């Protein structure tokens, strides 16, 4: 008789803090993460109107150091990191030899010969392994520091004020205020060394704080206290998903996977063919670019009240002229009602001939077809 042992989801160093706040938990990428603390709608609105606090410690952190660091990353990933300035960050992809997306990630240039690669939670071990394998022959060291690193995000219009309230000096407060988008700086909070980045996954201004895992509970409490007067609300994965969907940002496992190329995901601009390195997947992606994509990722706006969900099929509308029967032309990858916009929205992979904004399509909502319109992304843009 063989005993069936189910792997238990991992906990971040902030799990106890979430329990104190009464969070509801869900398994995400093998981690037991807070889904919400109360109302996911209230958490969503807090990020849009004031500020939200997220535990992102399930994300990976992989350091790449050495004289060949830039040339190595230019070979291992699709972007050009030799031209990334120290203090800046770049969104990128790691693909397989066939050009399929293994993960999307952010790469920070920490020093001339040192980078920090941040993959998604469920893919972090795979990315660390692939980087280690692809490092053969390069003068680099690849170190997976995911287990020892925590990541806390503050997102929303009041995020800068909250972060400025907790850093140690006037110079650091000025550095926070002057930090550009997709850039990082080093600050100190209550004796905690923080790598502070200004990126985000919500469509709002926001910051990510990379810290030693054992100091995360202390920093979490400091931020909550500093954020009380700024409307800071702890937020779970449910609101994070609705926020990123409104911002038109892809999620690995939904919009991105190994069967999808960057061009199908509207991420062709992330791929650098100008660099000289023969990066993994280059030949396949050059051929894919030349051939063109059969389907591409688009935004859909619901013209009715019901929302499309991931996996729902998309059809041509019934032709009133030719009586041509509707045919399947795509599939929704993510969809739900938009709390900010007040109507259903979705990301979908559609045949390119139906991808033009203004095109009307129909989505099969469990046996009943409802009209949706192809719209430009993002659905929501800060300040618009």
Sequence of secondary-structure elements: HEEHEEHEEEHEEHHEEEHEHHEEEEEE
Over all CA atoms, what is the radius of gyration? 22 Å
How widely separated are the two ends?
A: 62 Å
Number of strands: 19
Q: Specify the biggest β-sheet.
A: 6 strands, mixed
* Uncertain ranges: none
Provide the CATH architecture of the largest domain: 2-Layer Sandwich
* Overall tally of domains: 3
> Quick one: overall form?
globular
CATH class of the largest domain: Alpha Beta
CATH superfamily of the largest domain: Probable tRNA modification gtpase trme, domain 1
- Percent helix, as a range, is 10-25%
* Beta-strand content estimate: 25-35%
Strand order across the biggest sheet? 10-11-12-9-3-13
Structural class: alpha+beta
Tally of alpha and pi helices: 9
Mean residue pLDDT: 96
The name of the CATH topology of the largest domain is Gyrase A, domain 2
Describe the protein in words.
With 384 residues, this protein is an alpha+beta fold. It folds into three domains: 15-59 and 148-246, Probable tRNA modification gtpase trme, domain 1 (Gyrase A, domain 2); 62-144 and 261-291, Aminomethyltransferase beta-barrel domains (Alpha-Beta Plaits, 2-Layer Sandwich); 294-375, Elongation Factor Tu (Ef-tu), domain 3, CATH 2.40.30.110. It is built from nine helices and 19 strands. The protein has helices spanning 15-20, 40-49, 69-76, 124-134, 159-166, 170-178, 216-227, 237-246, 282-291, and strands spanning 24-28, 31-36, 51-55, 62-65, 89-95, 101-111, 114-118, 141-144, 149-155, 184-189, 192-197, 206-212, 232-234, 295-302, 313-315, 328-337, 344-351, 360-365, 368-375. It has a six-stranded mixed sheet, sandwiched between helices. Helix 2 (40-49) packs across helix 8 (237-246), helix 5 (159-166) runs antiparallel to helix 6 and helix 5 (159-166) packs across helix 7 (216-227). The protein is globular. It comes from Leucobacter komagatae. It catalyses: N(6)-[(R)-S(8)-aminomethyldihydrolipoyl]-L-lysyl-[protein] + (6S)-5,6,7,8-tetrahydrofolate = N(6)-[(R)-dihydrolipoyl]-L-lysyl-[protein] + (6R)-5,10-methylene-5,6,7,8-tetrahydrofolate + NH4(+). Residues 295-381 form the Aminomethyltransferase C-terminal domain. Its EC number is 2.1.2.10. Residues 14-275 form the GCVT N-terminal domain.
């Amino acid at each position: 008789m063989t005993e069936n042992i189910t792997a238990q989801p991992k906990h971040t160093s902030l799990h106890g803090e979430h329990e104190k706040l009464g969070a509801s938990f869900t398994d995400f990428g093998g981690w037991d993460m807070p889904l919400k603390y109360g109302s996911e709608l209230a958490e969503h609105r807090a990020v849009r109107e004031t500020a939200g606090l997220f535990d992102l410690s399930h994300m990976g952190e992989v350091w790449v150091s050495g004289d060949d660091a830039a040339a190595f990353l230019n070979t291992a990933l699709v972007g050009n990191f030799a031209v990334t300035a120290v203090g800046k960050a770049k969104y990128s992809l790691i693909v397989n030899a066939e050009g399929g997306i293994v993960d999307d990630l952010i790469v920070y240039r920490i020093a001339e010969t040192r980078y920090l690669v941040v993959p998604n939670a469920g893919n972090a071990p795979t990315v660390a392994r692939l980087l280690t394998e692809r490092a053969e022959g390069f003068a680099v060291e690849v170190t997976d520091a995911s287990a020892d690193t925590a990541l806390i995000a503050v997102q929303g219009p009041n995020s800068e004020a909250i972060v400025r309230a907790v850093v140690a000096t006037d110079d650091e407060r000025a550095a926070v205020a002057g930090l550009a988008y997709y850039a990082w700086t080093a600050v100190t909070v209550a004796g905690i060394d923080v790598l502070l980045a200004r990126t985000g996954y919500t469509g709002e201004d926001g910051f990510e704080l990379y810290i030693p895992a054992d100091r995360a509970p202390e920093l979490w409490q400091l931020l909550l206290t500093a954020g009380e007067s700024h409307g800071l609300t702890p937020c779970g994965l449910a609101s994070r998903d609705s926020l990123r969907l409104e911002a038109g940002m892809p999620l690995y496992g939904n919009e991105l996977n190994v069967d999808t190329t960057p061009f199908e995901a509207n991420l062709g601009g992330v791929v650098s063919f100008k660099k000289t390195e023969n990066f993994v997947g280059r030949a396949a992606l050059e051929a894919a670019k030349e051939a063109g994509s059969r389907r591409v990722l688009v935004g859909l706006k619901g013209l009715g009240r019901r929302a499309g969900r991931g996996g729902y099929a998309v059809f041509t509308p019934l032709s009133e002229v030719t009586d041509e029967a509707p045919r399947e032309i795509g599939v929704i990858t993510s969809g739900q009602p938009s709390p900010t916009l007040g109507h259903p929205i979705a990301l979908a992979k559609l045949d390119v001939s139906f991808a033009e904004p203004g095109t009307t399509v129909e989505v099969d909502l469990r046996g009943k077809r409802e009209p949706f319109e192809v719209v430009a992304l993002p659905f929501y843009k800060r300040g618009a």
